[in-house]
Write a structure and sequence with these properties.
The chain contains 4 helices and 5 strands, in the order ααβββααββ. It has 150 residues and is of the alpha+beta class.
């Protein structure tokens, strides 16, 4: 029910923006069409990412394995953030550099080869993974850019 409402809001927002752009054509002239179309594409991308985040967040938090909980997601313009907690790890129990060295190639492989994960990467969209330990402090932040998948 919630995701259906979110989809409806996305469609109505896109339709409203489209109507404003077409109305603006009569006042601003046809030479600004490419600029306005780029703005519309950016808005559609932002709305789509925000809707995806809201839909995912409806089912969170969720344990993804015995050690890791996906707490929430967020769409922030050119990034899609995943916030994880390592529930069995406390302060001083992990070496952050070792964690990054282990996780970075794994994340790149998963994001770049899984179609469901890849859809969140656009020409200008990066996936950002924030890992926290059980006291809430950040252990590591890992970013997968579209160029990492080429």
């Amino acid at each position: 029910m919630n995701s259906h409402r979110t989809e409806r809001i996305v469609v109505l927002t896109i339709m409203a923006v489209g109507a404003v752009i077409w109305a603006g054509l009569f006042y601003l002239g046809w030479e600004r069409v490419p600029e306005m179309m780029q703005s519309l594409e950016t808005l559609e991308q932002d709305v789509s990412l925000e809707a995806s985040s809201a839909s995912m967040n409806a089912d969170l938090p969720m344990m993804v394995d015995d050690e890791t909980r996906l707490d929430t997601t967020a769409a922030t313009g050119e990034e899609f953030h995943y916030y994880y907690t390592l529930v069995n790890r406390g302060a001083g129990s992990m070496d952050a550099a070792k964690f990054v060295a282990t996780m970075r190639p794994h994340l790149h492989q998963v994001v770049c080869t899984n179609p469901e994960m890849r859809k969140f990467l656009g020409p200008d969209i990066s996936a950002v993974y924030i890992y926290r330990i059980n006291d809430g402090s950040v252990l590591a932040t890992l970013r997968v850019r579209p160029s990492d998948c080429e």
